[in-house]
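Budget justification, computational time. The allocation requested in the original proposal was used primarily to generate structure tokens for proteins on the priority list. As evidence of use, we reproduce two of the resulting records. The first is shown immediately below.
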Amino acid sequence: MCGIFAYLNYNVSRERRYILEVLFNGLRRLEYRGYDSSGIAVDADLASSTSSSDGAPYAGVPPLVFRQEGKIENLVRSVYAEVDEKDVNLDAAFSVHAGIAHTRWATHGVPAPRNSHPQSSGAGDEFLVVHNGIITNYEVLKETLTRHGFIFVSDTDTEVIPKLAKFVFDQAHDEKGDVTFSQVVMEVMRQLEGAYALIFKSPHYPNELIACKRGSTLILGVNELSGQNSGKPFHDVKALTTNGKPKELFFSSDLCAIVEHTKKYLAIEDNEIVHIKDGSVSVLKFDKDKEKPASVQRALSVLEMEVEQIKKGSYDHFMQKEIHEQPHSLTTTMRGRLKDGGILLGGLKEHLKTIRRSRRVVFIGCGTSYNAALAARPFVEELTGIPVTMEVASDLLDRQGPIYREDTAVLVSQSGETADTLLALDYALENGALCVGVTNTVGSTLSRRTHCGVHINAGCEIGVASTKAYTSQIVAMAMMALAIGSDQISTQARRDAIISGLSSLPRNVSEVLKLDVEMKDLASSLIDSESLLVFGRGYNYATALEGALKVKEVALMHSEGMLAGEMKHGPLALVDENLPIIVIATRDACFSKQQSVIQQLLSRKGRLIVMCSKGDASAVCRSGSCRVIEVPEVADCLQPVINIIPLQLLAYHLTVLRGFDVDQPRNLAKSVTTQ
């Protein structure tokens, strides 16, 4: 759940000040992945090396390593203060330079400089590593290395990696006299267990970087600076980078950190080692059972993302921007997929017959993605006639719940890197199920390892609390249900109505966003409340769960989404004149039941806020004693897309009014890559 970033300039002069800013900006783009500590490593001045390198195990000087607790700006301030104190020359220029950086979400050890990355092999910083993921056998490795005289100074699992690299390097040097950087890293990988993305830097191998991964996302970006671009697709990244021309190379946990530099990228595969040396990129395939890795050819892809997507623009926060982007993101999700009154999903086309023959569909997700799947369940069942079961990924794994060869497992994850969801994917694959991925991230692990899938194309989402990805996930799964059920004549009229509703959905979302001021006013009335209940049922049970989750995540206010049908079985005891309760009562098959719920709550002096379809205010609250939020009425199965938006706005304004960080809420991070 961390962000790692690296920048290497080759045959192009870059001042240290520029290099630092590239690294800092890379971390800023990745800060949503973790923000309790951070660090960077850059090269020192060679001219100042004479005295400091005496007795050093390598020619040259140790790199400059900076670590700091807190957010990225804390690191920036401390680096420039330390640079002034040490009289480091920020104007020093390097024609070749390799720098690495890291922003952390703590898993092993409290946020503190000693636990921040880059983690070091020890005195002289012979090997430095930035790491995203978890090393599951670190305790065994730590004991072994301790017996060989290594002293550990952090509480992290990561520290074993650079120390293991030094141990491998020293042993190889004693036996063979020479060892390459990639050989060292390959032997380190042989010993590691768990999920990780790693970037190595070492003064033994100046101006080189090595990255490798197993289970965590890692991207290589390539920016040619020669000014000559044939416009032809590159078939081999090595052929492109061995030309000796000036270039910039990047490693990143996410595409959003490289889009301002280049649109040419390579999604590194599991067990690949990417070695940058002399401006050339070599890709090796690591196999634990083989002594030597195989060299592989990889093609660069072209990133379809604009720099504007990773900037706030005129908005105060990314969450606010992403809420208001939903008319556009939904349009993008549907673009090219609503064809001639039908649905065209290229990623599913070859597998539709298999899905139709499934004994059941199993939706698997976590958090917001689970809620989106829950919102989709009713109409998937209705349009396909296939039973649908819901699974929280971690619970499925804990129970080892039954998955059969005749099942279709639909795994939903915004990032495509959610650890529990990926482990559930492994479990489903082992059991022979057809696995379908629904993700926002092209090239993610989920998109690569499932048999087929749907990209939701919602655009880069930076706010930790998911908003536009949630609504795009629902729409993507609605289209999936329409495509699967397209062979059934009995549901043709229903499908036509839903497709018509999809076409007008962005316009209706724009309409509901006009409630922004009204939701801010509602938030101000709830600012001192300690709890919030949200009741929904049918299509909008998921809306209740997701709305409560948003308030919980960012406003740090206790909130619970509940199935309205369960109100009488316990939750009714909580109702009094002080507890705010939101009841979702828009027009659908459950409308009359929700009217009954409202009356029961009012009879117990409940403090009600009712969400209803436009024109239904008098029908849901005849006495006028409750606050009403009126939203546009759309096809009932698409109503959750409309209904969640006022709750997203409420959560946003509550957070701002309560003085909390909207985009980086306490203790959370965007991509949950740990169990």
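The second record produced under the same allocation is shown here.
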Amino acid sequence: MTTISLISGNCGRGRGESIGSGYGITSHFANEFLSSDIHGNPFRNLNATRQRNRKEFCVVAGVKKGKKHDYPWPDDIDPNNKAPLTYLSYFKPLQEKSKPVTLAFEKPLIDLEKKITEVQRMADDTGLDFTDQINALELKYEQALKDLYKHLTPIQRLNIARHPNRPTVLDHILNITDKWVELHGDRAGYDDPAIVTGIGSIEGRSYIFIGHQKGRNTKENIMRNFAMPTPHGYRKALRIMKYADHHGFPIVTFVDTPGAFADLKSEELGQGEAIAQNLRTMFGLKVPIITIVTGEGGSGGALAIACANKLLMLENAAFYVASPEACAAILWKSSQAAPKAAEKLRITAQEHYKLKIADGIIPEPLGGAHADPLWTSMRIKDAILQGMEELTRMNTKELLEHRRLKFRSIGVGGFKEGSEIQPERKRNMKASEVNTPKFSDIESELEDLKKTILEAKGPSDPITNQKLKKIEEDLDQEMTKAFISMGLIDQIESLNLELTRSPNPGQALTQGLQEKANKITEEFKKKLSRPGAYLGLKHKLQKLDIVNRLLELKESSEKLKSELNEKLSSDIKAKMEVLKLAKDKLSKGDSLDENLIEEVEKAKEDFEELLRSSNLKVVATRKREKVVLSPKLREKIVKVNREIREEIEKVINEKGLSWKIDELKAEAIKDSSSEKVKKLEAEIKEVIATALSSSQLKEKLENLRVELESSSGEEIAEGNVAVDNGKW
């Protein structure tokens, strides 16, 4: 076929002048037509038009040969070719050899390779015998290779699965098949190159092959869309699977994709529906299905061709519901936590085999499948033949039941048919709210702690220490959860690592480390102060603060007592006995004689002088009022107090004061004396007081107050001196 371009219009009239606008005509002529006079009749009408319009007319003809193509079929097919349909595939041998790619954890091996190369070059240049040295280095290299590839972490295995030189699906298919024909199209107007399908034979038996196809270089990866199929690709796979089911061909699928293509166009064309159709259809196919995970298998995009009777994985393959990078970005707000996410997700073949997701692991050569692609393909071929030998013995009913039970038994233990199912339980997924203690529980726990601390004999009481240790452990767990949730755990670990590497870890922080620590602290306080966030942590911090203050008061009180006891002379102790005697008489209702009153006054003066000598300022003396209550009245007080607490909790829940109380606590942590704290306190008190005044509690309180006044008895004990740092 030959092309002629005709351009008509106003040609130049000298001096570059042009008038009017031109138009272009492109016509295709057969070679026979071109052999005729091109200046003849075909242009007669055009010339007549030019004469009528009194315009000049010129024709420019460009002859261009058509590009010779070899797809979908070449111009000259060799009838003697045994495989005449190989031209139907885009997959051709690469003209340039792939460049070697070194992964980050393989750098020690590269250093050894360089040493071996240097020694070999030295032997060639000098002519000396370095055989022993080369052999020693090669043994060292082999040992290092074994040690490295036998202790790979999950993220390292994932990097191997993503290696640019790793053999693709078509590489494996061409290595294991005797004959292979690729089939194209979804019969809806599109052929997705990200999924390849076709029919091939192994040892005289025909199989249908379906797989995700990655590119071997940048150009191929763009053409294959990095093995991320669109709905057309899944519908093409579905068409070929139905074809296999109709003709009775066993199906072998290869999985190697980061996931289905998630662009807007794919969603508009029904990406989810296409995957769902594949999942449903595969469970009803009446032919054996084996799936091989050769690289990475990402989410539903991989599962859409992986609902098989047997799922086999290469040693360094990975299968996941979300990539470690995406998981780390969601949980830890940073893709830098991908190694940790890969470990938690259990994406490796070994983990899948333990969980009964994978039915077998196909070994790879040391260095990964790209180190020896042909050897890897042969292991895949052996696994396919072995699996098909087992599955072809089953009839249709057994085959379908085998496939169903495989997915029912996934996981440790799996689901056993006929076993009882646990009843449905409602679960609150908001862990922070579930684990947050109630206000009444916190108050009672604090009261218990106060009582334990005040009744303890000395500051180092074992019971107090045990309770304090438990509070610190709970707080440590809450802090760790908060750091992870806030995305600060990586920064803290990095800071700890820098501290351990510091030459003087016991000394003060350097300026750089101090700035990092301050930045983490500020960000932590900022996120902690948000209303309604991290309630459990806030409660535990508040509780620990109160306990520490009580312990400090207890310690200072004990210290003060010991100092005063050291300064007490025998005379002072005798005078204290006088004070005690006076107190006992007053409690019995007896009157004091004049001599005893004088002794009491003298003892008070001496005792005040002792306090002044201990640098304690006397503030005032006071009377202690002691009310003796009957057991029945005490029971009434406890009951009313309990009702008041319950009513307050009810008001808080009904009026929606929880968020305001959280805001008050957050503001109090920042500055307890701020105007905002006072305003919030007043608002909360006003709401609670208004609600309580309208309840029956007001009447109960009035009745209780009357009973207290009628049964109260006052007993005054002199000699209680108040000092500026405690009560004596």
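A brief technical remark on that second record: The mean pLDDT is 75.
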